[in-house]
Design goal:
Rossmann fold; eight-stranded mixed sheet; 390 residues; alpha/beta
Length: 390
């Protein structure tokens, strides 16, 4: 079956320019001449890729792109933006809206064919690499997989990593909960643009035996289809120390509510962190690839072993927050630390800032960026490890 391409442009000459060359390449080609018509055909025709002009007579291609990305079912639909604007700001605006590629007019049909084939092939590889969603057994649903994420030191982007990994899992169709197991300010709400109406505060005022699925579920904030958040405190009056028994009770409730539970932990050791780490089936140690963070990672590994965490449960994720030359590579860090490397997150500081400002994780606004590919691959590995651990 030939792949279906939707071309959206209000100029008939552009439609003709691209329609016939793509058709000769074996694609099934459909067209639209407005943003409204484009959205309708995306819903009804289910194209495999969209070539979308920015300047349309009713709503802009940027807005069309935004609306497509708001739908979990279409979050990985490949989109190539067309524009007569060549300045860098226009390209950044298009990519931040969720486009996978940006082509300036006048467009060469041969170049467009290459871009279409390349993007379709890349999307297919990403979809094939994804493990299938976890399915519950007959009767009572299987207990979810708790995954603790902790930084070797402060400032390595643990919350950003948790936000993107949980969103990536939700995109793959898994039921996910992301929890900030922090006694102080939690930044996860900002990552998803969620209003923190409820936080962990109320749970920390309860006796551990009173914390159950109902109580925890009532404090979860929906972020995406399939993803809910347990947010950390948002103001000084809400700050509470977390008892070990409270941490255990919260995690026990969360794994009954979601297939995968990502636990965002502070980098400073505490009784609550120890309890959460002991409850986790997978522990992700996050670090930057420099000598100082390597020392911190060694110290954390020593502590994890002292706390009785199985070495087989500990995994490593290397995060490049900035572009740097003199850094240690992930393979070398894996060898030095003796911990399995799940992946290396490439530096994307501009995209990270744009995602935070928009209240959407990077994996949601730049589907084919290198950093998104790295994050999706790490999320897929965690899902596979979790399913095997059952």
């Amino acid at each position: 079956m030939s792949e279906k391409i939707l071309i959206v442009d209000d100029q008939a000459v552009v439609l003709r320019l691209l329609f016939h060359p793509l058709e000769r390449e074996g694609f099934s080609v459909i067209t639209a001449m407005s943003g409204t018509e484009a959205l309708e055909k995306i819903q009804s025709e289910k194209p495999d890729l969209v070539i979308l002009d920015i300047m349309l007579p009713d709503i802009s291609g940027i807005l069309v792109c935004n609306r497509v990305r708001q739908s979990l079912q279409m979050v990985d639909l490949p989109i190539i933006l067309l524009s007569g604007r060549t300045e860098l700001e226009a390209k950044i605006e298009g990519l931040e809206a969720g486009a996978d590629d940006y082509v300036t007019k006048p467009v060469d049909p041969k170049e467009m064919i290459v871009r279409v084939k390349t993007l379709l092939a890349r999307t297919q590889r990403l979809r094939q690499a994804a493990p299938p969603p976890a399915t519950p057994s007959s009767g009572r649903s299987q207990q979810g997989i708790p995954i603790a994420v902790i930084g070797a030191k402060g400032g390595v982007g643990v919350t950003t990593l948790v936000a993107n990994l949980s969103a990536a899992m939700a995109v793959r169709g898994h039921r996910v909960a992301a929890a900030e197991m922090r006694p102080f300010f939690g930044a996860l709400a900002r990552q998803f643009g969620v209003k923190p109406d409820a936080t962990i505060k109320a749970l920390l005022e309860m006796a551990p035996k009173s914390i159950n699925e109902t109580q925890v579920g009532a404090r979860l904030a929906p972020a995406l289809n399939g993803l809910q958040l347990l947010l950390g405190p948002q103001q000084l009056l809400d700050y509470r120390e977390i008892q070990a028994e409270q941490a255990e009770a919260i995690i026990d409730a969360l794994v009954r509510l979601a297939a995968f539970v990502l636990i965002d932990l502070p980098h400073m050791p505490s009784v609550a962190s120890r309890a959460a780490l002991r409850s986790a089936q997978i522990v992700v140690l996050t670090m930057e690839p420099d000598a100082g963070c390597l020392d911190s990672a060694r110290a954390w590994l020593e502590l994890l072993r002292a706390w009785g965490i199985a070495e087989s449960a500990i995994k490593l994720v290397v995060v490049n927050r900035i572009q740097a030359v003199d850094v240690l590579n992930g393979v070398e860090l894996e060898r030095i630390l003796g911990v399995e490397l799940l992946g290396t997150v490439t530096a994307a500081p501009d995209l990270a800032v744009a995602a935070l400002n928009r209240g959407k994780p990077m994996v949601m606004i730049a589907q084919t960026a290198l950093v998104t590919t790295a994050l999706m691959e790490i999320a897929d590995k965690l899902v596979t490890l979790g399913i095997k651990a059952r």
